[in-house]
Amino acid sequence: MRNKLILFCYTIVASLLVACGSQNLEKDVKATFVGEIDEIRGDNDALVFAFREDGKALGQISVDLTVNPNETFQIGDKIRVGYDGMIGETAPQVINTLTVEKVE
To answer: What is the CATH code of the structural domain delimited by 31-102?
Structure first.
């Protein structure tokens, strides 16, 4: 009986580990835009005037710069931002920033 209980516990623990390990910790980028940094607020947030890939203006969007800690950003930099596709209806607009990189 004791061996069955131990086997059952191992099975539960193994199942939980597999379930936790199978989560995609990296969120998929669903949309991107290109913009120019208008203002940097603190160390981690920038206001970016953004354009969709087709050239349509999206307006000013708040971008989290900490997703790329290896880069130093400045006002006037042109950046490409990847996000989950959802844009909050606030002023400025807010996104879930997934990637940020400088573009020339």
So the answer is: 2.40.50.140
